[in-house]
Sequence to fold (602 residues):
Amino acid sequence: MSVLVVGSVALDTVETPFGKRKDILGGSAMYFSVAASYFSDVKLVGVVGEDFPERGVEILKRHNVDITGLQEEPGKTFRWGGKYHTDINHRDTLFTDLNVFEKFSPKIPNSYKNAEFLFLANIHPALQLEVLSQVDKPDLIVTDTMNLWIDTTLGDLKKVIQKTDILLLSDSEVRQLMDEPNLVKAGRALLKTGPKYVIIKKGEHGAMLLNADNVFFAPGFPLEDIKDPTGAGDVFAGGFVGYLHQSGAITEKTLRQAVIYGSTLASYACEDFSLDRLDKLTLDDINGRFKVFRDLTAFEV
Amino acid sequence: MSVLVVGSVALDTVETPFGKRKDILGGSAMYFSVAASYFSDVKLVGVVGEDFPERGVEILKRHNVDITGLQEEPGKTFRWGGKYHTDINHRDTLFTDLNVFEKFSPKIPNSYKNAEFLFLANIHPALQLEVLSQVDKPDLIVTDTMNLWIDTTLGDLKKVIQKTDILLLSDSEVRQLMDEPNLVKAGRALLKTGPKYVIIKKGEHGAMLLNADNVFFAPGFPLEDIKDPTGAGDVFAGGFVGYLHQSGAITEKTLRQAVIYGSTLASYACEDFSLDRLDKLTLDDINGRFKVFRDLTAFEV
Fold:
């Protein structure tokens, strides 16, 4: 009874208007796992180098994340560096040192193969296909991607999308992928290529959940101080997939709630660097903000 | 018992991916008046040239808009030309011929002076101040503005804002005006300079209503085909101010409903060129879409 995630584990160097941090814990699988752990058991597949700090393992263990599938390889851990602008919705990537991630070949342990939900974090589509070839048919496959793969690996990406139940991507990515500027039109066109649902992430403007019949909008939480938005998309995915798994049903009702739980966790994650805020949440924190989200869009008919 | 609007009346030449139209009815006061007319009596102040077509007067009369204050001056009517990109959220202004609007000096007829609500559409802040000096204290002053005045006439603009109850501006305008990229922070800072409420218009991402204590988000309506977004902001204002006036109370409840009525009318207006769709709405159309808006953000707690 668990959620399987395959993605990156990284050490990030991040500068925002609120400060600078070197070699802090990051990576899509890391952010996803801790977020999803508030709702479900999580099994992680990823790779780290010999220099991966003990605190990285400790935080995963503290959140009961199964790290049987976390490989350690000779060399250094994947590192990413970025600097956010004064307008924190924009950032520049300063460096990307793939290190051990360059030759990452995901291996799904036998003990993972019964995971009901699979989250394919944003890694090379060829690796996502490798993962899909190793799992028994999961009940739900949720996939994340990025503009780089639309530019460079469109063929493999389309194969992944065809096998995906719920696809997550940003507004600019869905426009680029479908060559259609209208988000609803682009999303509806994308639905014809495989996924049952598409979630369009709009950064500060929130997220849109779309299927053939319905549209649901979640607002961005009105945070006045965003210390570090790194990983917010992966945290959103973790809250979304984790809650959906815990709910025991995949319906319009639970999907909408899951989008709000994802938004809730993502908003908390932005309040501090790395996993610092995410690590210390309580279920009261989470359910409290979930209810605040209700009031943000409520009006009387 | 009416709403007074002072703004532009124009003939627009508009090109969008859906077609091209020459000398179609436009202008902020025109769009506002027709939208607000679905809820309240409207009194218009503006200026046209000798070439203003009879169909322009007819549509205002059809919507019971009082045009005692519509001056006709020697010369041509204000003309604006714009071309929208394939991504219809972006446009280029091709020309702006002020014509009779260049020497416009708003005169408020005596019969208008008891209007309870005043909408200052986006005109030169010095003209907005002229209007304010001519009216008895209205119950509510709602003001629109644009980046041009932030760049060129900041002193007068600040005087107008100081006297304004509800200020409407776009996300880029509030960021520029307050030199603060965070929308909530920028909006809250703006509230300290006069207005009781700020409405931040976010185009396709909807609108945000903000006061010192509350935040309310209205989503953008998921239109698949936007034929012509010209005037959407003025139509939003018309629906917002018109409904608020009709409701008879200015509370958090009616303000939120008014934002949704404004969004409803703006979404209809985008479905055709000029005032073509707006002209033909029924209250059933309006109330039907108002309820659809409810479902767009609804989730169970």
Q: What stands out?
A: The mean pLDDT of chain B is 97. Residues 69 and 107 of chain B are 7 Å apart (CA to CA).
